[in-house]
Design brief:
Structural class: mainly alpha
Low-confidence stretches: none
Number of domains: 1
Number of helices: 1
Strand content: under 5%
Oligomer: single chain
Distance between the termini: 63 Å
Number of strands: 0
Shape: rod-shaped
Radius of gyration: 20 Å
Order of helices and strands: H
Mean pLDDT: 92
């Protein structure tokens, strides 16, 4: 078995991907809320 050292893995790519995912989900939620508000105001 290989020697594993906890915390030695480079995770910058995963952190960048996760940050992008969170930003995308946040914008998606904001857009959905805005669409719902518009629909309520337009009596759709």
């Amino acid at each position: 078995m290989s020697d594993h050292k906890s915390g030695s893995m480079d995770i910058r790519a995963q952190e960048k991907t996760f940050a992008s995912f969170i930003k995308m989900v946040t914008w998606g939620a904001v857009i959905c809320v805005l669409v719902l508000i518009f629909m309520a105001l337009a009596n759709a």
